[in-house]
Write a structure and sequence with these properties.
The chain has 4 helices and no strands. By secondary structure, it is an all-alpha fold. The protein has one domain.
Length: 158
């Protein structure tokens, strides 16, 4: 069972890095970028931070998924995905899928389009990016709260 303990520790570390970075970008970097006088300066700041973080999170998000899958497999937790008391497990999987698709599929495909729109309407693009990050952070916060409470025996629908 030591492998499950290691998987849980890696899972928590990966999620801390991933969601902590999302929080930093959403609550610090994007508002700071928005305060820039020039729209191009704002986009440049956002892109430089996001590029560095994206390189790191390309490791932590797959690690969170692999460790979560391993724990689910080893502890045979598959039925929990259908149990409303464990809604947070499906939420974790859904959030992970959203970020995997965004990071490894949507972002690479949309990069040229993003850059073109950012050149034409930098402030509007930054507002959309801020709104998207706020929504993702709200979903991640709700999921993390549910997962921690649920893993410690709290049932939301008794």
């Amino acid at each position: 069972m030591d492998d499950v303990v290691v998987a849980r520790a890696l899972h928590v570390l990966a999620v801390i890095h991933w969601i902590g970075g999302l929080t930093f970008v959403t609550l610090i970097v994007l508002p700071l970028a928005a305060s820039r006088a020039s729209g191009q300066e704002a986009i440049s700041l956002f892109e430089s931070v996001e590029r560095r973080f994206a390189a790191q999170v390309r490791f932590s998000i797959p690690l969170a998924g692999a460790s979560g899958f391993w724990m689910t497999y080893r502890l045979d937790l598959w039925p929990r995905f259908l149990d409303p008391d464990y809604w947070w497990m499906a939420a974790m999987l859904g959030l992970w899928l959203i970020f995997m698709l965004a990071l490894f599929v949507i972002e690479p495909l949309a990069q040229a389009s993003f850059e073109e729109k950012a050149r034409r309407e930098p402030k509007a693009v930054l507002r959309r990016m801020s709104r998207l990050h706020q929504i993702l952070l709200a979903l991640a916060t709700l999921t993390a709260f549910g997962a921690v409470a649920g893993a410690h025996g709290f049932f939301f629908f008794p």
